[in-house]
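Working notes for the structural subgroup meeting. M.R. asked for a predicted model of this chain before we commit to crystallization trials. I am recording the input and output together here so anyone reviewing the notebook later can reproduce the run.

Input as submitted:
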Amino acid sequence: MKNDSPITVTSPLLPNLDEFNEMLKDIWTSKWITNNGSFHKQLETELCKYLKVPYISLFTNGTLPLITALQALRITGEVITTPFSFVATTHSIWWNGIKPVFVDIDPSNCGLDPDKIEAAITPKTTAIMPVHCYGKPCDTERIQAIADKYGLKVIYDAAHAFGVERLTPIPSPVERGEYRMTADPMLYDLLKEHARRMRKNPTQAEDVLWQALRNSQLGAKWRRQHPILDFIVDFICFEHSIIIEVDGGYHNSAEQMQMDAVRDKILRDNGFYVMHITNEQVLCNLDATLDTIRTMMHDLPLQGGQRWAWTSILNAGDMSTLSFHATKVYNTIEGGALVMHDEQTKKRIDYLKNFGFAGETEVVAPGINSKMDEMRSAYGLLNLKQVDAAIEAHKNGTLNIAEVENNYAILAYFLGKVFPTKSELFIYS
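Returned structure, recorded in C-alpha cell form:
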C-alpha cells in the first residue's frame, strides 16, 4: 500500500501548549518581550545548572555564537577545523575573514583527528574549532594538549552535544578527608528495612539475574536491592560503579520515563553508571544480557575503588557553542548559546550580542543583535523539564518503526555505525 506521507528525519520536542500559553500571558502582561527579560535570565540560570557549566549566554540561533566566539577571542589568520560538519561551522570562520584549514576526522568519533592537527599548524594558525559529532565527544584532552603547546585557542561546536557528559575521576572519600555513606544517613534505616523486604520478594526476572550475578560469577561482587542516596537500586557493583535496573512494562509510560531520567541523572552525578534491562531481556535471552553486562564491566575504566563523576563536555576548551534549533533534542524553536568559563568573558559576550550596549544607553564595543526573546526563553524553560526523558529515548533507540517503513535498513546502518553504543562513557543527544 502506497503511503504518500513524508518520512521526517526528526520531530521537534514540543512543550505543553497550555503551560506555554500561561507563560505567554505573563509576557503580554509585563510587555517585556526581549532585551534580557525575566524568562531569559531564568533560562540562563537553569541551563547553567542542568549543563553543569559556570556561565552561559543565549543567542537567537546556533551560528551566531560561533561568529561571536571568534570575535570575542580576537581570532585571526587561520583556524583548523573539520570538513565533517554542518556548513555553519565553516561559514562562521569565513564570515570573520578567517581562513578555514581542514583536517581529517577520526573514524571512531567523527571528530578532528589529533594525530593530524599538528601537521596543519602554520605561523598564521590562531585557533582550533573541533565539532562533537552526533553526541560523540572529540578527544578533548589531546586537542587541548596541542593547543597549549602552540598557544592556540579552542572553540568547540557542540551543536550535537546538549547534555553530553563524560566520566572523570574524582578524589575518594579518604582523599577528601571525609567519610561518605552510600545512603542518606537520615533515611538509611528506613531504606535498609525496605530493601530487606524487596530481597525476600524479587520479581522473576530479578531472581534469575541474581542467580547469575551472585558469588562473583562475572568476576566482581554484586549486591541486590541496595540503598544508594535516597534510592534502592536493583543491582550494584561498587568495584565498577555500575547500577543495573530491571524494568517492567510500567517503565514505558511517559511519566515513569521522566521520573527514571531524573533518578538516573542523580545517580550519574554521584559517579554511578546506570544500565537499564527489561524483564523480557533477562527471561528470554539471559546469555545476551550477561554478555552486555560483561562488556560494560570491561569498557568502563572504574577499577580499584576509584570514584568517578559525570562532567559536562561543554567545559572543554576556551568556549563551547550550542544550537537549540527545532531539530535538536533540546530546542527553543530556534536559538543557541555560548558557554564560557569566567564572568568577565560572559559580560563581553553579552555586550557583543546586544550592539555593544552596557545598560540602556552606554555602548562599550561594536556588536550585533542576536538576543533570544522572552517567548523562546519561556518555550525553552518548559522543554528543559522534559529533555531528560527525550535524551533517554534517543540513547535507548526508542523509535516508531512504523514511521520509517521501508527505510529500516538505512536506519539500522545509521544507528549501528554512526551513533555510539551503550558502552560509551557519555550520554548522547
